Amino acid sequence: MNYLLAIYQPDGEPPEGLLDEVLPRVIAWDNEVKAAGQWVFAAGLHLASTATVVRAKDGDVLMTDGPFTEGKEHLGGFTVISAPDLDDALDWAGKLAEAVGLPIEVRPIHGD
Questions:
Q1: Which residue from 44, 28, 38, 48 is spatially nearest to 2, judged by alpha carbons?
Q2: Mean pLDDT by 10 residues, the chain (112 residues)
Q3: CB 33 within 8 A of CB 92
Q4: Contact in structure between 105 and 8 (CB atoms under 8 Å)
Q5: What is the pTM of this model?
Q6: Nearest partner of 104 among 29, 49, 14, 15, judged by Cα
Q7: Helices marked H in the chain — which ranges?
Q8: Residue 99 in contact with residue 31, Cβ under 8 Å?
Q9: 34, 51, 87, 98: which one has the fewest Cβ atoms less than 10 Å from its Cβ?
Q10: Among residues 2, 3, 15, 4, which one has the least CA distance to residue 101?
Q11: Distance CA 40, CA 16 (A)
């Protein structure tokens, strides 16, 4: 089964120097999950302020700038892994949370 590991990060640009500290840990995690044959794909997202929300209502399509919800954290990126069960996916998510220092939401993907 495939699992989404969603990374939630604070709004705005990261503090200066933070990426230099975090990136080596994230690369090590990427290498570990790939070596285990469980990596499917990953992507980072631009800031939430670049989002556009599209809604269909009463036969019209409405577009609104900005994220769907206002908050102090938004989805910043994600990785999809293949794992035999939820416990294994949670183990990988724990390692990723340690690497990035941010919360990780784990969700199974329909259709697997």
A1: 38
A2: 94 85 95 98 90 93 84 89 97 96 95 72
A3: yes
A4: yes
A5: 0.86
A6: 29
A7: 18-35, 86-100
A8: no
A9: 87
A10: 15
A11: 30
Q: What is the token pair recorded at 88?
A: 């294994």
Would you state the structure tokens that stand for residue 5, as one six-digit string? Answer: 């590991």
Q: Report, in this order, helix, strand and coil percent for the chain, each rounded to 5.
A: 30, 40, 30
Distance separating alpha carbons of residues 45 and 77, to the nearest angstrom: 5
Given a contact cutoff of 8 angstroms between Cβ atoms, the answer to whether 72 and 88 are in contact is: no
What are the structure tokens assigned to 39, written together? Answer: 């990596």
> Tokens at residue 32, please?
């570990």
Q: Quick one: angle between helices 18-35 and 86-100, nearest 10? A: 150
- Report how far residue 53's alpha carbon sits from residue 103's, in angstroms, rounded to the nearest whole number: 24
